[in-house]
């Protein structure tokens, strides 16, 4: 019972935190879906794909940091806790500066690679050039979120995320509904909200963790050997994240290549996948913190027990979401758009969406376990295999199945992740000590 309470103590705030992310995407899709053309939905979707590269590409910082910080917490090593945080922020700010300097090249290369109509691409570029200025704040907050989670603190990320998204949604509605802006309006709302969130995160940090500042030593943060060691773990997670980016980018790009209507329909349906994934990531994040703590303290029995309990919660909510999508799929699509031709197309692909919670739930739980155990190389390998499965299924079946092949391949990708991670579980580093 105590372990279940520990899981829920971390999972519930993380679920509330995570759900603000797809909620924001849904609001943006709603604002654009109620314009006079489907191209606005497509433009936000295509612009979002570019930021999948930009932001998900730096997500390795959050994932690496949460596991390493949790292990430092388990060892009760305050110096390592401080060093992990400031090393992550150093890399985040450095990366954000590079993005701002090369933003023109990133936009041109991205839209050259991605498929889509010229009208959609022009609007996506406008979205990109506005939202890119949020990069320093957005990437820094990834680091701070990961560090708070490693400190077993899920409350602060929840407060920050809810606040950020209230500001974001309010700003976006104001810019679009009051000022009459289009894609630039939802992008500007994101910029304002991200900097608000960073300021709030710094205030909360100083309120509870001011004592960490005296442990800070710049020489330790930028020490070459330590940076390389950190990046070695992060590099594997980066490759793993890059595989996810490639899959979702390919999914959206091929949708755009079919037609603006398919792009709009698939983009709306993807919001349901994101809703489930961000919900279940609440338990994955709890797994990161608890598995990291047990790994740092070398408590193998508790680690095995927590894995079993996490899978019980994951399976239960997979069943709940399957029922939700099965009985309410069409109604949910209507939240995003009032364009009947988009709704009609989207309904045809709901059966694939219904399967995704079942095929995908184990992959999210395993991600939390592997990150907490800092089994980054095993994560990388399982993701490479699963990505191969995705492309194999798509190219074999697309000539006969069309867009259905894209959704079948996505289910295969999710299932492949879960199965391969189950196979490699016994090879976690802690079991070899």
Note the beta-strand portion.
Answer: under 5%
Main beta sheet, described? none
Distance linking N and C termini? 28 Å
Number of helices: 17
Would you tell me the overall average pLDDT?
A: 81
The secondary-structure class comes to mainly alpha
The SSE string, one letter per element, is HHHHHHHHHHHHHHHHH
Tell the overall outline: globular
Low-confidence stretches: none
User: How much is the radius of gyration in Å?
Assistant: 21 Å
Helical content (DSSP H or I, runs of 4+):
over 70%
Count up the domains: 1
- Beta strands, count: 0
Describe the protein's architecture and organization:
This protein has 433 residues and is mainly α. It has helices at 2-33, 39-56, 59-75, 78-101, 103-113, 118-131, 135-150, 155-178, 183-209, 218-221, 224-258, 260-296, 300-333, 340-347, 350-372, 376-401, 403-424. The chain has one domain. Helices cover 86% and strands 0% of the residues. Helix 1 (2-33) packs antiparallel against helix 12 and helix 3 runs parallel beside helix 12. The longest helix is centred in the middle third of the chain and has 37 residues, at 260-296.
């Amino acid at each position: 019972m105590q372990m279940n309470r520990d899981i829920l103590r971390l999972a519930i705030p993380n679920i509330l935190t995570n759900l603000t992310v797809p909620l924001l995407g849904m609001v943006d899709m709603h604002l654009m879906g109620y314009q006079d053309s489907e191209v606005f939905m497509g433009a936000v979707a295509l612009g979002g794909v570019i930021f999948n590269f930009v932001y998900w590409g730096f997500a390795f910082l959050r994932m690496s940091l949460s596991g390493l910080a949790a292990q430092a917490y388990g060892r009760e090593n305050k110096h390592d806790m401080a060093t992990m945080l400031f090393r992550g922020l150093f890399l985040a700010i450095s990366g954000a500066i590079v993005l701002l300097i090369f933003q023109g090249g990133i936009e041109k290369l991205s839209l050259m690679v991605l498929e889509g109509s010229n009208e959609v691409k022009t609007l996506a570029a406008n979205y990109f050039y506005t939202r890119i200025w949020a990069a320093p704040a957005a990437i820094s907050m990834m680091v701070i979120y990961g560090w708070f989670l490693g400190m077993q603190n899920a409350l602060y990320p929840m407060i920050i995320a809810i606040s950020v998204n209230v500001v974001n949604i309010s700003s976006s509605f104001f810019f679009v509904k009051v000022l009459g802006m289009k894609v630039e309006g939802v992008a500007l709302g994101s910029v304002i909200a991200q900097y608000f969130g960073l300021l709030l995160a710094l205030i909360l940090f100083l309120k509870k963790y001011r004592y960490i500042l005296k442990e800070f030593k710049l020489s330790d943060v930028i020490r070459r050997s330590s940076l390389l060691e950190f990046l070695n773990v992060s590099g594997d997670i980066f490759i793993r994240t890059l595989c996810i980016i490639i899959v979702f980018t390919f999914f959206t790009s091929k949708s755009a290549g079919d037609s603006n209507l398919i792009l709009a329909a698939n983009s709306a349906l993807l919001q349901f996948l994101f809703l489930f994934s961000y919900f279940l990531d609440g338990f994955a994040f709890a797994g990161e913190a608890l598995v990291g703590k047990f790994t740092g303290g070398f408590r193998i029995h508790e680690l095995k027990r927590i894995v079993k309990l996490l899978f019980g919660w994951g399976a239960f909510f997979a069943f709940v979401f399957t029922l939700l999508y099965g009985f309410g799929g069409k109604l949910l699509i209507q939240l995003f758009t009032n364009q009947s031709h988009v709704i009609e197309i989207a309904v045809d692909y709901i059966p694939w969406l219904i399967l995704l919670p079942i095929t995908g739930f184990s992959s999210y739980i395993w991600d939390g376990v592997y990150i907490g155990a800092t089994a980054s190389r095993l994560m990388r390998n399982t993701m490479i295999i699963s990505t191969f499965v995705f492309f194999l299924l798509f190219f074999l079946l697309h000539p006969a199945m069309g867009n259905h092949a894209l959704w079948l391949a996505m289910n295969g990708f999710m299932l492949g992740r879960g199965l391969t991670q189950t196979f490699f579980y016994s090879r976690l580093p802690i079991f070899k000590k």
